[in-house]
Amino acid sequence: MARAHEMKTLVLGATSAIAAEVSRLLARRGERLHLVGRSREKLEKVAAACSGSAVSTAIADFGGTFDAEALVAEAVRELGGLDSVLVAHGELGDQLESERSYAHAEQIFRVNLLSVVALLVPIANLMERQRSGTIGVITSVAGERGRPRNYTYGAAKGALNVYLEGLRSRLYSSGVAVTTLKLGPVDTPMTVGHEKNALFGKVPAVARDIVQAMDAKVPAAYVPRIWGLIMPVVRNTPEPLFQRLPFLSGR
Fold first, then answer.
1. Which of 25, 42, 148, 191 lies 20 to 30 Å (CA to CA) from residue 236?
2. What is the pLDDT of residues 43-101, one digit of tens each?
3. Residue ranges per domain, the chain?
4. Which phi and psi angles does 194 have, rounded to 5°?
5. The domain 8-249: what is its CATH number?
6. Distance between CA atoms of 75 and 57, rounded to whole angstroms?
7. CB within 8 A of 149, min separation 6: which ones?
8. What whole-number distance in Å separates Cα of residue 90 and Cα of residue 146?
């Protein structure tokens, strides 16, 4: 039987490098985990790295068809309740392909926005009823301004940021915290084809920042924190100037 003080946490997209490291950190402090991802083999590896904590797993493909209500209900049964959720799945997609193919653009929106909303509806309703809980959702600094190199992905994340703002205010009086985790680029397999620079975060530090932000129940956090200084400049640069600066508006 779970101890009364044992936190019960659902991690969605648990096989990403960042979510796997967050899961390991939470397991190390004794949280009970339910990990969801699309690869059974990868899930088993993440679960093994969380040894010492009670861990259950489930398979779901957030880019395809899945039953969000049933998935959340299963997590609650496995965990014996629900205290905290990290929504960590996402997909950059191919910007150029999204300009040629509506189907690809739609897929980017399905993974990064629509599947998240599908999951947040039952999660929010559950936590609102129990009048407690913490929800952390990984978005992106790309959602703060449309840039030619990733504006389809950025638009999906920007819409998610707005959705989370509304959800946070809706749940405020219920004592449920919603933290928007605005990630800058991180050196992970998802960015393997991207040229790296000093602004790329490292997985261990990024995971620690995510855990700290959710523990503190902050409304929004830039991860790494340096992006909290960079993005106001990017966001507020007048468009005529923005379009003349290749490092901002280039492909």
1. 191
2. 999 999 998 899 999 999 999 889 999 999 999 999 999 999 999 999 999 999 999 99
3. 8-249
4. -100, 140
5. 3.40.50.720
6. 9
7. 95, 250, 251
8. 18
